[in-house]
Amino acid sequence: MIAEIARYPYPERLFGQSPFSMTNSSAPPERREKIPPEAAGRRLDQVLAELFPEFSRSRLSAWIKSGDVLVDGATAIPRQIVRGDETVALRAAPTQEVPLAPEAIALDIRYEDAEVIVINKPAGLVVHPGAGQPAGTLQNALLHHDARLSEVPRAGIVHRLDKDTSGVMVVARTLRAHTALVEQLQARDVHRQYAAVVYGEMIAGGKVDAPIGRHPHDRLKQAVVDEPSAKPAVTHYRVRERFRKHTFIECRLETGRTHQIRVHMAHIRHPLVGDAQYGGALKLPRSATPALAEALRAFRRQALHAERIEFAHPVSGDAISVMAELPADLQALLSALREDTAHAAR
Question: Is the pLDDT score of 188 beyond 60?
């Protein structure tokens, strides 16, 4: 475990314009956003869900009904249709946001203070409850660790990792920390570094700048699409180690779209090892050693690990950097790839 803390040089750049993130006022904090012109004709609650993704739709609807949403200074009404270019103000009052049962699920905490927690999520742990997974999630575990997280949207979770992706995640313990971290994510001021093993021999690093949206034929998948609804997505990658038919790479997210690394790597024809959803069936290299063949068959998740996260502390402005070592299954896969490459060279 590595946790490095240093003074962030310009905290006012992140927090100077956000009284919500720097005060403990009892008044409900207010968030303002501009409704984009292309949203004209849509329902306000749908647009709010996109403008404020950190809050659940049920919570946003409740705030509309309670009069805590203003559109150009006027109180919003349920099922209101927007015309585009309005300014929406959201008074996000603290509330019991997460009606979930706490569960004693072990957490690998890598950094913790009064405002934030950084955990190392194991592969296989679902972040949010959903259809088919009503319990046994990271949210349940967080509520058991700190009951006060029930007053923070989504128990303080401001970003997510896929079920089968391991690695570091930051969690907000207070409402002001939650808003400040979301602001950093939206401003692309959170550094997220991943390690991955992909199919194919990469010659050098590069950048994938391709918008991501819902897959046109499979609602469970994302895809690089050329549609107005697609969101900008940028992934930087560099080569760490080359093998006969695989490459160990480092990825840095400039944006944070659903399945971004998995979609972008598949898009450039270097899908992640173990990613059945975007990479297709298992591919065994010709003349692979028995150890590598066994390792590839046994690797049943995408070979992706969030190894480092860096952000400015939501209150002090200190730079927080937390790293999680590669998990055992990924280390074993890399060992088998190295042995196979050495064997082929002999």
Answer: yes
What Rg, from alpha-carbon coordinates, does the chain have?
Answer: 22
pTM recorded for the entire structure: 0.75
Check pLDDT > 60 for residue 10. Answer: no
The reported pLDDT for the residue numbered 183 is 87
Positive or negative torsion for Cα 293, 295, 300, 304: negative
Domain ranges of the chain: 30-91, 109-345
Active-site pick, 162, 275, 329, 340: 162
Q: Which segments of the chain are extended strands (E)? A: 2-6, 30-34, 69-71, 74-75, 87-91, 109-112, 116-121, 166-172, 191-199, 206-209, 212-214, 222-224, 234-242, 246-253, 304-312, 319-323
Q: Which residues of 239-267 are buried (b: 16+ CB within 10 A; e: fewer)?
A: beeebbbbbbbbbbbbbebebbbbbbbbb
| Cβ-proximal residues to 71 (8 Å cutoff; 6+ apart), any chain | 35, 44, 80, 82, 86, 87, 88, 89
162 catalytic per annotation: yes
pLDDT > 70 in the chain, percent:
88
> For residue 67, is it left (φ>0), alpha (ψ between -120 and 50) or beta?
left
Superfamily grouping for domain 109-345:
Pseudouridine synthase (3.30.2350.10)
Average pLDDT, stretch 75-81?
91
Query: What does the mean pLDDT of the chain come to?
Result: 87
pLDDT of 27 higher than 80: no
Structural contact between residues 175 and 29, judged by C-beta atoms closer than 8 angstroms:
yes
Q: Domain spanning 30-91: which superfamily?
A: RNA-binding S4 domain (3.10.290.10)
Going by C-alpha positions, the residue among 230, 236, 259 that lies closest to residue 160 is 259
Distant-in-sequence, close-in-space partners of 310: CB < 8 Å, separation ≥ 6: 190, 191, 319, 320, 321, 322
